[in-house]
Amino acid sequence: MGELPEEREKPILTLPQKVLNRSRSFIVAALVIVAALAWRDAVRKTVDTVWPEKHSQLVGVYIIAFLVTIVAVLVGLVLGHDED
Questions:
Q1: Domain-by-domain residue ranges, the chain?
Q2: Could you tell me the pLDDT band of residue 2, with boundaries at 50, 70 and 90?
Q3: 48 Cβ contact partners less than 8 Å away, ≥ 6 residues apart
Q4: Nearest to 60 by CA among 47, 41, 49
């Protein structure tokens, strides 16, 4: 019959290691937020320059938001894919 798969041993992390790993995650998340805000300003100024009329700006903002959402979903799917 079939063999049972071997269980992977998880490394045992000490409290300082857990704190360090969690701190790294928070720092990366904070940098991502800063980068997102910088991109938000860049996109806003680009839309203002490319589409000077208010109606066109609104359409441009929605188009960009839609494209960014699609990219975010695709990246989330790729990064969230489990290789088991």
A1: 16-80
A2: low
A3: 57
A4: 47
CA-CA distances (angstroms) from residue 13 to 10, 24, 25? 9, 15, 16
Enter the pTM of the model: 0.54
Tell how far CA 54 is from the center of its chain: 30
Q: How far apart are CA 54 and CA 21, in angstroms?
A: 46
The pLDDT tens digits for 33-78 are 999 889 888 888 888 888 888 888 888 888 888 888 898 888 888 8
Compute CA 38 distance to the chain's CA centroid, rounded to the nearest angstrom.
15
Lookup: tokens for 13: 């992390």
Pairwise CA distance, residues 53 & 66, whole Å: 20
Token pair 């300082």 in the structure block, residue? 16
